[in-house]
Amino acid sequence: MRAVPLGRSGIDVSEFLFGAGGIGGVGASPATRGKGLTLKQGIERLDEAWDLGIRGIDTANSYAGGASEEAVGRWLDERQPEDALIATKVGAPVERGQDGVDLSARHIERQLTASVRRLGRVDLYLSHAPDPGTPLAETLGAFAAALGMGIIRAYGCSNVTPWDLEAMLTTADREGLPRPEWVQNSFSLLVRGDERDLLPLVMGEGLGYTPYSPLAGGILSDRYLGGVQPPPGSRLALAPALYSKVFTDGALERVAGLGSIARDFDVSTPGLALAWLRWHPQVTAPIVSPHWSGQWDAVHEALGLDLPDEDATRIGELFD
Fold it and tell me: Please, which pLDDT band fits residue 234 given cuts at 50, 70 and 90?
């Protein structure tokens, strides 16, 4: 697996990152805690990711109430892997009485300390979502302080619009503070809103881009063709609201068309969907989160398929 630069940060990441948000729950929702991967399963997926060549692990302080960070921290302590990059996030509700995103300096300081305690260290730090109640200068100043003390190596932002990102960059420049180095948003063949305005801004400013949900909750795996309903425990069953806009008959027709093209390449539908992201000139490294070992096959296929530009364009046009 190749190493690729994370924007202009001076940090290299593997072509795919592993998302640990399914360990102990499904994302940050309290309603899904205990419904994701067990600790044993999470350690197995982390081992498999490492064996495949993945060197970046993505988590968040809010995932499964901190259980995801604890699992990653345990894996790091037991395996002592060299060159691992650990990314986590801050801002989502985790503290008593917190009813929205909090990116105040005090909150970031407290939560970074807690994340370092659970993980052992934090290399890459992300704001989980914008906080309209805290001045950007305060938030960026807190990240700058963490950088200055050597607690983190770089910071980025997640779930942002082009306007959010532009405001962050402008504020950082005006205040003489370090800029965010990369963006982490939802992006896939079925979710391509960032292509119009945000990705050109990301590229123009020399930032990295590490999309999550590259298979749109499994919709791009073709397992839901023919009217098959999400089984209990699947991402679509546990968090249907996240994918309601793309879990449609029209989307499934496009997935069927993708499957037809995949057969021409002798790969699976999800393998081709990931290969398209790997080809995408504005994508640094997608975040993959296999629930079971067999799902790594799609990543293997994507790594072995260098899509010609004309085929990648044809695939993109299928989902326009």
Answer: confident
**What Å distances lie between residue 161 and 183, 184, 190, 199, CA to CA?**
10, 11, 18, 10
Amino acid letter, residue 279: W
Residues of the chain with CATH 3.20.20.100: 1-184
pLDDT tier for residue 27 given thresholds of 50, 70 and 90: low
User: Distance between CA atoms of 320 and 314, rounded to whole angstroms?
Assistant: 10
Q: Are 92 and 126 in contact (CB under 8 A)?
A: no
Instruction: Quickly count: other Cβ atoms within 10 Å of residue 96's Cβ.
Output: 5
- SS3 label, residue 1: coil
CATH number, domain 1-184, options 3.30.70.2860, 3.20.20.70, 3.10.290.10, 3.20.20.100: 3.20.20.100
Q: What is the DSSP string of 185-197?
A: -B-SSS--GGGTT
User: What is the reported pLDDT for 298?
Assistant: 98
Quote the pLDDT of residue 258: 98
pLDDT at 155: 98
Q: Is 23 helix (H, G, I), strand (E, B) or coil?
A: strand
Do 151 and 122 meet the contact criterion of CB atoms below 8 Å apart? yes
> Which of 210, 197, 206, 221 is closest to 272 using CA atoms?
221
How many angstroms separate the most distant Cα atoms in the chain? 55
Residue 63 annotated to the active site = yes
Instruction: Choose the catalytic residue: 63, 209, 212, 243.
Output: 63
Distance between CA 28 and CA 62 in Å, rounded?
5
Parallel/antiparallel/unpaired status of strands 12-14 and 3-5: antiparallel
Residues 6+ apart with CB under 8 A from 305: 265, 267, 271, 272, 275, 278
Question: What is the residue type of 319?
Answer: F
